[in-house]
Amino acid sequence: MRFIKKKTNKSVEVEVWEDEREFEKVEVYESTFTMDNVEQPLRFVKFAMKHKDKRRSQVMIVTTCMEMTLKSLFKIIRSRWDIENSIFNNLKNECGLEHCFVHGGKAVEAVLYLIFIASNILQLFRLRRLKKHIKSQREMVRLLLKGLYQLKYQAELVLSSA
Known about the structure:
By secondary structure, the chain is α+β, with helices and mostly antiparallel strands. Helix content is 47%, strand content 22%. It has 2 domains: 2-91, no CATH class; 117-157, no CATH class. The chain contains 4 helices and 4 strands; from the N terminus they run αββββααα. The longest helix is centred in the middle third of the chain and has 25 residues, at 70-94.
């Protein structure tokens, strides 16, 4: 990996994108290589991004997919980064997942599924039912309880998209 990284860093960029969403400039470097015990050739792609506030960052990926365009790879990796930052960070900070109090693969998996489901239901509730921004978590919980109370007596709200 070190060798291919050095080789790619010394190469000329394959593509350069100007004014790409929140970036001033994105330079893309690409090369292919093989590894022991891996049947397919691997594709190493480095995205060097210059943000509009002059900060710089880079993302490097290794994939076996040779046909996908560089723009598609960039969109996928940015989406995965958003998932990492928003969902997992939210689970860790707001759902008390810093330490899992159960042991064993199946128990941990069950707890994670429950937390994912609860988080998704809460986000869906925020998106579908709340028209204005919530001032506090207490207000959000009050509205969630109100919605659950209404669901008890108005079953047609369950499948309503309004």
